[in-house]
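Changelog-linked ticket: 2'-monophosphoadenosine-5'-diphosphate example.
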Amino acid sequence: MTDRYAVFGNPVEHSLSPVIHRAFAAQFGVDMAYTRQLVAAGGFDTAARQFFQGGGMGLNVTVPFKQDAYHFANRLTARAKRAGAVNTLAVQKGRAVLGDNTDGAGLVSDITGNLGWSVVGKRVLILGAGGAVRGILQPVLAQNPRELVIANRTVEKAQQLVKEFTRMGSLSAVGVDNLVDLQAFDMVINGTSASLGGDLPSLPDRLLARNARCYDLMYGAAPTVFMNWATGHGALAVADGLGMLVEQAAESFFLWRGLRPATEPVIAALRVSLM
Ligand code: ATR
């Protein structure tokens, strides 16, 4: 029988998840169907209940439902609890639904595995303090950066994250406007949603140390505003979040099927299709 999976979101029509999971399934000859489902605001619980009662095996959850999915799950993984958000739901024995968050693991796999960038001992800056950043903090801290600074337009939100995650590493908060007073960084990760609108917080010219590497959680056909800024300010290497997208999907696929798909050919094919 065909196992059913889906991605729930709003909007969802541009989600690449079906393409990615179909490519993974093809690698193993797994018989699965994976669809996109547009869910109305406030309609997540009903839609998810219907999906699972109808025999669905697993969901990916995207904006704006990651918190709804967190509350919907019967059980949570430790990393989902820390993130306070769920991007993957999986049916378990007895039809209980497990909630996981694979975003941070996806980012770290892309940075350390695909790109070969090391975080260990580095001064790392994360821009933004919203849901996307909350999801990546613990996995990034687990890589043992020398220091991790969270900079946000609204400094209180960065301070709140520091309070919650401070036991996991050397962590501090700063307002974006005060970045100018800090020492340069070896790695900068843009987790603001500003680049969605082609925008960027105003960054000081000397933000990047020699050989700095810059990563944008966003991706698109063209380099993001942040990537262009980084290239223009001497970054050694610059990447967008397409690899993270595929890697977080691979983590979801592993949770559902116990199989680790090859991600490189999928990233390469998507890169071509975006152009
Ligand atoms: P997401 O789920 O994508 O993280 P979010 O929780 O709404 O979305 O968080 C968006 C983040 O991008 C926040 O850190 C936000 O800064 P504020 O907390 O000050 O609002 C940041 N952001 C969005 N637009 C921005 C802009 N034009 N300049 C600077 N920061 C911006």
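Closing comment: Example verified and attached. The mean pLDDT is 96. DSSP finds ten helices and twelve strands in the chain.
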